[in-house]
Amino acid sequence: xxxxxxxxxxxxxxxxxxxxxxxxxxxxxxxxxxxxxxxxxxxxxxxxxxxxxxxxxxxxxxxxxxxxxxxxxxxxxxxxxxxxxxxxxxxxxxxxxxxxxxxxxxxxxxxxxxxxxxxxxxxxxxxxxxxxxxxxxxxxxxxxxxxxxxxxxxxxxxxxxxxxxxxxxxxxxxxxxxxxxxxxxxxxxxxxxxxxxxxxxxxxxxxxxxxxxxxxxxxxxxxxxxxxxxxxxxxxxxxxxxxxxxxxxxxxxxxx
Length: 256
Description:
Strand 3, helix 5 (81-90) and strand 4 (95-100) form a beta-alpha-beta unit. The protein has a single domain (2-181, 210-254), classed as Rossmann fold (3-Layer(aba) Sandwich). By secondary structure, the protein is α/β, with parallel strands linked by helices. The protein contains 10 helices and 9 strands. It has helices at 2-11, 23-37, 41-49, 52-62, 81-90, 103-115, 154-164, 185-204, 207-219, 223-232, and strands spanning 13-16, 19-22, 71-75, 95-100, 122-126, 139-145, 165-176, 236-243, 248-254. It starts with a helix and ends with a strand.
């Protein structure tokens, strides 16, 4: 990742999937992707993962340590799966901020929270992960699930997560990662680059967005690299655990 950061500084480019684009262009392109898929985002997640993404998210929050009465933040929270689980944990005396940089995704998330009757302890924020509009030490817990790989400047986002945490607070990341078993790679690649874009075309009439999403997984830092990035951002006691053979990983760290 350090090599990639140096490239960004020297050339003013970054990756959008397997393409190199101007740094300022990536945010616009990612916006286009999620504007396109917002309406059927949850349906596609169920189809792509055969519903397993819901188990990953439940486990993610089950081990979070979130307590009643806490104030918590979900970055790139999209349609609100994580925020809904957080809401039940913090209870009536706690609060959840569901944030996303994309208006379409945040609108879907708000509607789904209201449809579930989750209206008392959830706030909404149109927020850039690289420049969070919150005060230092505002939150007991901060998460980002399946969103970090879409951020242009990931070290900046990690530093912001650290900044808005209270001393002793915890940050957790749920993200696609690197497979533990090389023998599964060919099968996984065939699914990701063969079936997944076709499924996107069939369900959302958008093959390109799901090809980008598959590529973005491959460009995302691996487990050890992301752990090192968290340490560099100021977190301590950084750990990670693999789920489903490393298809996804949960990273966690604390504000000292």
